Amino acid sequence: MIGYPxxxxxxAGLIIVLFLLIALVSPVVIQGHMxxxxxxxxxxxxxxxxxxxxxxxxxxxxxxxxxxxxRLHEHLMGTSxxxxxxxxxxxxxxxxxxxxxxxxxxxxxxxxxNLSKWAKGTLxxxxxxxxxxxxxxxxxxxxxxxMATGALWSVKTTTLGVLSQFVxxxxxxxxxxxxxxxxxxxxxxxxxxxxxxxxxxIMAGIQLLVRLKKAKEGVQAWRTLLFKA
Length: 229
Fold this sequence. Notes:
Elements: H1 4-25, E1 27-37, E2 40-49, E3 54-66, E4 69-80, E5 83-94, H2 95-110, H3 115-123, E6 127-138, H4 142-164, E7 168-169, E8 174-179, E9 185-197, H5 198-211, H6 215-227
Parallel strand pairs: 6-7, 6-8
Antiparallel strand pairs: 1-2, 1-9, 2-3, 3-4, 4-5, 6-9
Helix pairs in contact: 2-6
């Protein structure tokens, strides 16, 4: 018969194993929301995993187009097992930074065996449970407003068509474009909810590491791409 103290150790071990098993099948939830009304912007992206124990939120309060660069005002907040951290910064994206990012991605991709196959396999496990995108557009002229409305419809339907080739659509997307003939205007609001199993996300990360041709150099390349400007 198991002794009294060992019974508690066994029970605690079983609880930990059960928690880990449930955590592996629990989803990673990704929520995105964007709204633009005139010059006012509101962009927010949230990640949640392990029943909310792991959380990350990025909020962009303003997007300024100034000359050849885009300036972002960002609020970053993360929570992990009861510990939270916050950060606030202003960021600027210009042509040189975009080109540098493309070069970093090419280098990281070159060190990864069959990256496109890995990306398609990972995205195939993603379930898109909500997709809403409504817009209003007006140019002040009836003909140009009608043309702008048609062009925006084309962009939205093409985006959905491409997206449906990679992820699983679990709910019917809601897309709308309203023409405004009375005055020039542009407003748009988009939101989505996507889920992937926590175990699938962990496995995707492991598969990415396995696909690196040169472990040390490849890991460093991906770290530079993801965590350095």
